Amino acid sequence: MWEKSFPLSFLPPGEKAKVEDITGGLTLRRRLTELGIIRGKHIQVIRNDNFGPLIITIGDSGDCRLAIGRGMAQKIMVIKEENKTNGRSGFGQDA
Amino acid sequence: MGEAALARMPKEKVVALAGNPNSGKTSIFNDLTGSRQHVGNWPGVTVEKKEGKAIYQEQILKIIDLPGTYSLGAYSEDELIARNFILFDHPDAVINVVDATNLERNLYLTLQLLEMGAKVVVALNMMDEAKKQGLDIKVDKLSSLLGVPIVPTVATRQEGIKELLAEAAKMVLKNPPSPLALNYGREIEGEINKLEALIGQDPFLTQRYPARWLAVKLLEGDERLQQELMENKKGSILAQLEKSRKALATVLGEEVEAVIAERRYGFINGIVKESVKRQKSLEERLTLSDRIDKIVTNRYLGLPVFLLLMWTVFQFTFKLGDPLVGVIEGAFESLNGVASNRLEAIGAPRLLISFLTDGIIGGLGSVLVFIPPIFLLFLAISILEDSGYMARAAYIMDRFMHALGLHGKSFLPLLIGFGCNVPGIMATRTLENRRDRLITILINPLMSCTARLPVYVLFAGAFFPAYQGWVIFSLYLLGVGLAILMGKLFKSVLFKGEVAPFVMELPPYRVPTLRGLFIHMWERGSCFVRKAGTIILGVVVLVWALSNLPPGVEYASPESFIGRIGSFLAPALAPAGFGTREAAAALIFGILAKEVVVGTLGVLYGVGEEGLSEVITQHFTPLSAYAFMVMTLIYVPCVATIAAIRRETNSWGWTAFAVGYSLVLGWVMAVLVFQMGRLIGTFLI
Fold it and tell me: Which residues of A31-58 are buried (b: 16+ CB within 10 A; e: fewer)?
C-alpha cells in the first residue's frame, strides 16, 4: 500500500486520489482538517501547473474549490484512484 | 416603530451568528439587522466584532456577528474569539449559517457548536445554488438528524430571513440543550469518561466548560486549554490526560486528534447521505465557474487577464475620479475666495480669516479630494471580491509574490498604492494573516503615488529635460526595489517564524448584487472619511497654526514656527545636498500631501508655480535635485497615509514605526545618492 502513496503536488490535473496521510505539523493538519481534508477523503486535482498553488476539490462536496499552496500539497500523501468515468477531466496543462 | 419598540423593551437577548467564511454569514447579518457591513468573497473578512439589533414581535434581539471560522479550535485568533464568546458569554441563541452547497465542511462547525451545548438554529443558506447544483436537501430529515431547527435561506435575496428570526426568537426562550455526545468509539470513549469524571469533580472547571467537551478538546491536544489547566494547577487531570493520550496512541496506532476528526466527519457523512440526494453526478457538472476558471486561471492567460483587470480598475478609479477631484478642488477654492471676501467685508481679523480659509476650509478640502478615488476604488474592489475574482487573482499572483515573501493577496494593495497609498493600505484588509498585512502596510508608502508625480515632473523637467521620463521611471523602480528589500527585511527580522500555510477557498463566480456593492463601498469609504478625516483635519490645522504663530508673522515666513523648524532642520539635510530652510519647510509641508512640496517651494521662493522651474535651478544642482526627489519619494508618508496606517494597524506603535523607518530610509537614501554622486563626479572630472 504505502509504496503507492505520493505527495498530492505530483497528481496531474483531472486525476483523483485518496488521502492516505498528512505529514505536516499540527497546525497544518488542523487547518486541513477544518477544511475537510482528512485521511480517507477523495481529492480531485482541478489544476496543477507544477508551479505555484494547486486548485483541488474535495470529496463529493460539490463545487467547492480550494487553492492550496504547493508546500502544503507536498505534505498531503495520496494514493491514486482510477477514473471510473471519463466525464469531467480537470484542466491545467491545456492551452 | 422600531425605535419605539426599542424604548419600551429594556431587556435584550443575545443571538450570535456563527458560520464558515463565504457561507453568506455577513449577508444574513445585514438582512437581520439592516446595518451597513461588508460582504465579500474573501475568506476571513469579518475580523471585528460587529453588532446589530433585530426586532421580532416586540422582542429585541442583539445580534453579534462572530468571526467567520471553519472550526472552533484554538487554531486562530478568530476561532478563539468565536469559541470564547459561545462558552463564556452564553448567547441566548446561536444562528449557525451553513452553506447548503458545501454541507459536509460546514456541518463540521455545526457539530462543534452542538458539542459545546450551544442553542443552535441553522440557517441553511444558498439554497438556490444548491438546487441549481442538483442537490435535493430534505430539510426536515436533516433537522431531525441534527436535532436542531433548520431554516432554508437565500440571504442575497432576503428569503427565509423572517422565518429565521422567528426560529431564533423561539430558541431564545428555550433552555439550553445538553451538549451533543458523539460516539468516538470504545477506546476513546473510555478515556473520555475517565477525564470527564475527574473534571466533574472540579467546580471551577465545570462552571466554565461542559465537562465532556473539555475532555474531548484535551484529548485533541488543545494547547489553550492545557495551558489553562497548567496555570490553575490541575495536575491530576493533566496526568490523566497524559496517560490517556499514551494509551490511545498505542491502541489506535495513530494520533487521537486525527481519529476524532475522522469520527466527526464520519458522523456528518452519515447525516448527509440520509438527507441529501444528488440529482446529477459530479462528473456531469463542469460548472460555469469551472469554465470561467479555465481561462482566468490558465497558466498562460491568467496573468494577462489579471493585468488587464487591474489596469481597468486603475483607469476606472483615477480617470473617473480625477475630474471629480478637480470639481471638489475648484469648489473649495471658490468657497475659500468667497469666504475670505465676505470675512474681509465684515472686518474680521486677518488671523481669523486665515484660520477659517487656509486652516478649516483648506483642511476639509484636502480630506474631501480623497473621496472620489476612494469610493470608486472600493466600488471596483467590491465588484472583484463579490464576483469571486479576487480569490483567483490571489491564486495567480501567489507564485510571483513568493519572491517577496508574501502571498498573492498582497499584490493588489501594492498596485493600488501607485495610485494612492491610502486606499492601498485600506485594501490590505483582504489579507487574513496579520504578518502579511503589516508588511504590506509598511511597504505600501514606497509605491510612488500620483501625488509625488508633480514633484518629479518639476525637478526632472528643470534639471534633466532630455531624460525626464527615465528619471521619473527610475524613481518608481527605486520605490519598488526598496519595497522588496524592506519586505524581506521586515519578514526576517520582525516576524520570524510566523508562517501561515496558503490555502483559500475559490468561491463560485456570482453576479454581485447592487445592494451588496453599495453597502461595501459605503462602509469602507465612509469609514475613511470619518476616521482618517479627523486626523487629517487636525494636522492641517496644526500646520496652519505653526505657519501663523507666533502672532503677527507672515504666513510660513522664516520667523514663523514652521520657518524656524525649517531653519533648525536644514543642517540635517545638508549631507543630502539640499540643506536649505526652504527645502526643509517644503518637506514638512509635504507631509500634508506630497504634491504640496511644489506649492510650498513656490511660496517660499516668492514665485508662483510657473516661475519655479527656473528658480530651483539656482538653489539645486542636478545631483541635489535627484537626491531631493528620492527624499520626497521615501520620507514620511503623507498625513492621509499615516492616518490610514493608524486606522488599519490599530496601533500607534506601528504607525510611529512606519513614519520612523521611512524617514530614516529616506534620509539615508538621499544622502547616499548625493555623496555617491559627488564621489563619482570627482572621479569623472
Answer: bbbbbbbbbebebbbbbbbeebbbbbbb
